[in-house]
User: Fold this.
Amino acid sequence: MRIGEASRVSGVSARSLRHYEDEGLIVPGRFGNGFRDYCPSTLDRVRTIRSLLESGLAVRLIREVLPHPTDGPGVGAGAADAEFLREVEGYRDRLAARIAALSEQRAALDAYLAKARRTAR
Assistant:
């Protein structure tokens, strides 16, 4: 599909799709006229990239963490140095803290709803 439809389907702007391509995060196919052609697997990758960006991971780290889009399945990034591993661990720890905070908020809402339902009877 062309970029407009890919943008609509993925929920990511055409500008972001071009940026992901410029950063080497995705490699869309090309039609004979040069227009980009986004397949379903590229859109799945776009959604993964968007999710990682929204959760705070930098493009540079995403590029290192995700396999290159032209690599086959199961091919990961090369050997990582200690600084990179610390950055990824820091990201993972921040993500775990956010998950814990959201879980606490969900539990508080569940408790409120349960109490409200009991008193509404």
